[in-house]
From TrEMBL:
Coiled coil: none
Stated name of the protein: DUF829 domain-containing protein
Domain of life: Eukaryota
SUPFAM superfamilies referenced in this protein's UniProt entry, alphabetically: alpha/beta-Hydrolases
Organism from which the protein derives: Populus trichocarpa
Length: 346
């Protein structure tokens, strides 16, 4: 809800969804409910969506989203519209209870909760996960933070299974391979992004993508890697005058990557440090500027007072000059009268 209110129009409008294949769908957005309406059912059907699937919406332009689909069981096949998919190749089982027919309009189905398989089958699969639907529902006016916490918890639980790859075996960029679920995705990165990503991984002695959700497809993984590299370069090129808004956007993006399993905590820590330093500098500058501005105002006021006094002194000087001229004329007249008296006949 908070994202919609910050980044989407305040009135009902049309939004465009583009899937990974480039197919475009037009939907109605209802601002008051922050919900997608007309066209959503067609989008779900066209992309074979089922309960348990995770959708990542990336706002690329105003009212236009790029949508990445992460299948809940690693397969697009289901048993009916809300069927029960079998265990997939990714070691997860999704159990979906039938939806209630008469659900009150003030309630909606509760988001899926993810629990370790061991809760039902101990030692069945060490890193497996199980998604269980809860149809009890929750009140529509549930707090925004609680809804976000549920989504965050869901994304944090689904992690890549299998052992962590040892980055120390990578001797240089020439044998640096970016693997996702056993498949190399190097070729989908430019040489620049591949090099910069290698440097980031080397700085942490770890593959930053090794904990990505195991059901994330390669296209989304590539976008995450590119986004991580671009933000790291943005951080490196930052100046004290850089916009705080940029820092906020970068941090939110990295937070999203982190929820999907990307190891970007070190970048978020650096951003936090930069934002703190920038804020301290801004506060110090504001305090110093405030004092300087007050001093400037005092000096300006004094200058105005001096200018007014100088103007008055100039006027007085001009009056005195005029009086001096009159005195000279009078002196000349007196001298003339005196000489007339001196030269008068005896």
């Amino acid at each position: 809800m908070r994202f919609c209110k910050m980044h989407l129009p305040k009135n009902d409008t049309t939004v465009f969804l583009e899937n990974e294949s480039g197919e475009e769908y037009i939907l109605n957005y209802i601002a008051e409910r922050t919900a997608l309406s007309g066209g959503w059912k067609a989008f779900c059907a066209a992309n074979n969506l089922h309960e348990g699937d995770v959708l990542v919406f990336h706002l690329v332009k105003p009212s236009r989203f790029k949508v990445y689909i992460v299948k809940g069981n690693g397969s697009s096949q289901g048993d009916g519209e809300f069927g029960i998919p079998s265990s997939g190749a990714y070691g997860k089982e999704i159990i979906s209870e039938p939806a209630e027919k008469d659900v009150k309009s003030s309630k909606k189905a509760e988001p899926l909760k993810l629990l370790p398989v061991g809760h039902q089958e101990e030692n069945n699969q060490e890193n497996g996960l199980i998604a269980v639907e809860n149809n009890k529902g929750y009140v529509a006016d549930q707090s925004e933070n609680e809804s976000e916490d549920r989504a965050s918890e869901t994304l944090r639980v689904i992690k890549l299974s299998g052992p962590t790859v040892d980055f120390n075996n990578v001797k240089g960029i020439e044998n640096f391979r970016i693997l996702l679920n056993g498949f190399a995705i190097d070729s989908e990165l430019s040489e620049h992004h591949r090099t910069k990503y290698y440097e980031l991984c080397r700085s942490q002695s770890s593959f930053l993508h090794s904990n990505l959700l195991n059901s994330i497809n390669h296209k989304l993984a590539v976008e995450i890697i590119i986004g991580t590299v671009d933000i790291s370069e943005g951080i490196r090129s930052s100046k004290l005058s850089s916009s705080q808004a940029d820092y906020g956007v970068w941090d939110k993006t990295l937070k999203g990557f982190e929820l999907l399993g990307m190891k970007v905590g070190f970048l978020r820590e650096r951003l936090s440090r930069l934002m703190s330093l920038a804020l301290e500098s801004e506060e110090a500058m504001e305090s110093e500027c405030r004092e300087v501005r007050l001093e400037q105002a005092r000096v300006d006021e004094e200058m105005k007072s001096l200018e007014l006094r100088l103007l008055k002194l100039k006027e007085t000087r001009e009056r005195l000059d005029d009086e001096m001229e009159i005195l000279k004329e009078n002196a000349e007249k007196h001298e003339l009268t005196f000489q007339e008296a001196v030269n008068a006949p005896w």
